[in-house]
Amino acid sequence: xxxxxxxxxxxxxxxxxxxxxxxxxxxxxxxxxxxxxxxxxxxxxxxxxxxxxxxxxxxxxxxxxxxxxxxxxxxxxxxxxxxxxxxxxxxxxxxxxxxxxxxxxxxxxxxxxxxxxxxxxxxxxxxxxxxxxxxxxxxxxxxxxxxxxxxxxxxxxxxxxxxxxxxxxxxxxxxxxxxxxxxxxxxxxxxxxxxx
Length: 196
Fold this sequence. Notes:
With 196 residues, the protein is an all-alpha fold. The chain is built from nine helices and no strands.
């Protein structure tokens, strides 16, 4: 009889129970807000005792942080994939529409991200937001044969702010047409930053 174990999870992979707890947290926070994600409610939704939940994670705050990381990873994979598939000249426009589209299609993720930023007081590094978009803008201008722009940082900050405002408005008013808003913002980007 062999005592060798099968391959199991890859190193660094989250345990299945922890993954379940993260998903439950995304559902609770996404539907009802951070206040709804109590230890008792998470345990009940996962079909576990509170002690079992605490065995896998030390606190609800850590679960929210893990949920936030999962949301970011999912968003980066989806939006990044769409951007990578686009020609360099079109990547900033694809970025705008893909970002807004992602959060429209994943409203729970929108709320998890918002709640995590507020309740966990996560340090938002401005450069992490604007620099990749500024680089996409520079690459698009080059691909279009346009001269280098002097102030792409400000353009990236303005576009990022526009994305945030549209996503927030969609969160507050589900009837808001964020797809149309994304098209309008992309049009401004085309006409102001990528045409001269």
